Amino acid sequence: MSDKITYITADAWKEEVLASEKPVVVDFYSTECPPCEALAAKYEGLAEIYGDDLKFVKIFRQENRELAESLGVKSSPTVLFYRNGDRVGETHTGAIRRAELEKSVHRLVGEARARELKAREEKTETQCDVAILGAGPAGVTAAIYAAQAKLDIIVIDKGMSGGNVSITHQVSNYPGFIEPQPGFMLAHFMAEQARAAGAKFREAADITSVDLYRKEIVLDGLETIHAKKIIVATGSEPRPLGIAGEREYKGKGVSYCATCDAKYYEGKHVVVIGGGNTAIEEALFIDKFTGKITVVHQFDKLQANKQAAERALANPKIEFVFEHEPRAFIARNGDTVNQVEVEDLKTHERKRIDCDGVFVFAGMRPNLSLFPEAFELDPWGYITVDEEMRTNVPDVFAVGDIIHKLYRQITTAVSDGTIAAMAIAKELGG
């Protein structure tokens, strides 16, 4: 624990923060909070570098709830910045990356001083048996099996552990649970099991570079991880539609995550793009909040599983616009989407649907940006692997939603991770 971090309670807020002669960085944290744990090491590292110029403070949010709420702090971790008693700069919450936090710190100390202090940072080298890129079900399962085989494991993710499962409202078909499980809890159980087995995590990490052939991964420009084997488990992400207004209004009425954003549309009208399993199951979840849903689908019937499709079709709050595709997201007044322009695929006529927001569920695409042209891919851009999850790159394996496969489910991802870890353990003598 850094001696340049001060732990305070609400009683000391005025003296330690508002009356401080130095600018102050404040971390509102909680216990049993994975994002807080992920931030802790970064926060301590920054305190060591910038702690002579800034005051770094931590305050336990649950025991100082009244103060937190008065400041608009509703989640952990939340990092605030103060100068001369005034709140300044951005507010950082959730899976906070070191780079974004450092930018705010630099504004407090000034860019010239920041460059001087940053030059003092020490770079580190870490050795491990297996580095796993991605902390979704495939990567975490690989970590569990490999760690239980007494291998030294580091799991790296640009966000928090869980992948797409952590933003899935319910998982109803994972073996071992009679009742549907909240996705974030299932992801939490998996990660905690990996930690208990001995796997180490680097979460909310900025991955500076990856050299698959040298088995080197650089994080935050500071730590170089050297591995004997690498497992790529970076998964997939929502496929954008590529239409007018999509990029401009992402987060401003255009969403790709029902679990994240449905709560903001209480009693309102939203448009859901898509008619597959994800689109319809998420529409049924969104229905708990909204007053009306319009599903826009390119085909003449839903592609979702029969049970979900029947529930949606029988729901009086859900309307369907079949054989249409979206062509533009429009904000008539202000900067938030309130219309969707769609085209009839038969007549090519266009019309506009008034709404309060849009949820896009138009399929997924593999996350390969870290590995340009490194792998042999199938025609759809997914990595090809052999029966033990090996790629064409020596000592590099790939698992989960990023690989060529017939079905992409949590259970198939878990299977991939198991196979890769067992193959690696055999090769490394674990």
Give me the secondary-structure category: alpha/beta
**CATH-defined architecture of the largest domain:** 3-Layer(bba) Sandwich
Strand content: 25-35%
**Tally of DSSP β-strands:** 22
Estimate the mean pLDDT confidence.
Answer: 93
Using the coordinates above, name the CATH class of the largest domain: Alpha Beta
User: So how many helices?
Assistant: 11
Kindly identify the CATH topology of the largest domain. FAD/NAD(P)-binding domain
Radius of gyration of CA atoms, rounded to a whole number: 24 Å
Approximate helicity band:
25-40%
What is the number of independent domains?
3
Overall geometry: globular
Write a structural description.
With 430 residues, this protein is of the alpha/beta class. Helix content is 27%, strand content 27%. The protein folds into three domains: 5-118, Glutaredoxin (3-Layer(aba) Sandwich), CATH 3.40.30.10; 124-237 and 364-428, FAD/NAD(P)-binding domain (3-Layer(bba) Sandwich); 254-360, FAD/NAD(P)-binding domain, CATH 3.50.50.60. The protein contains eleven helices and 22 strands. Strands 6, 7, 8, 9, 10, 11 and 22 form a seven-stranded mixed β-sheet that branches. A five-stranded mixed β-sheet has the order 1-3-2-4-5. The two termini are 33 Å apart.
Question: Which short descriptors sum up this protein?
Answer:
FAD/NAD(P)-binding domain; alpha/beta; 430 residues; 22 strands; single chain; Glutaredoxin; globular
Provide the fold topology.
Layout (H helix, E strand, L loop, with lengths): L4 E4 L4 H6 L5 E6 L4 H17 L4 E6 L4 H6 L7 E6 L2 E8 L4 H12 L1 H8 L5 E10 L3 H12 L4 E4 L26 H15 L2 E3 L4 E5 L4 E4 L3 E10 L3 E3 L15 E2 L2 H4 L7 E5 L3 H10 L5 E6 L8 H8 L4 E5 L1 E7 L8 E6 L5 E5 L2 E4 L3 E3 L29 E3 L11 H19 L2
Parallel strand pairs: 1-3, 2-3, 6-7, 6-11, 7-8, 11-22, 13-20, 14-15, 14-20, 15-16
Antiparallel strand pairs: 2-4, 4-5, 9-10, 10-11, 12-21, 17-18, 18-19
Helix pairs in contact: 2-4, 4-5, 6-7, 6-11, 9-10
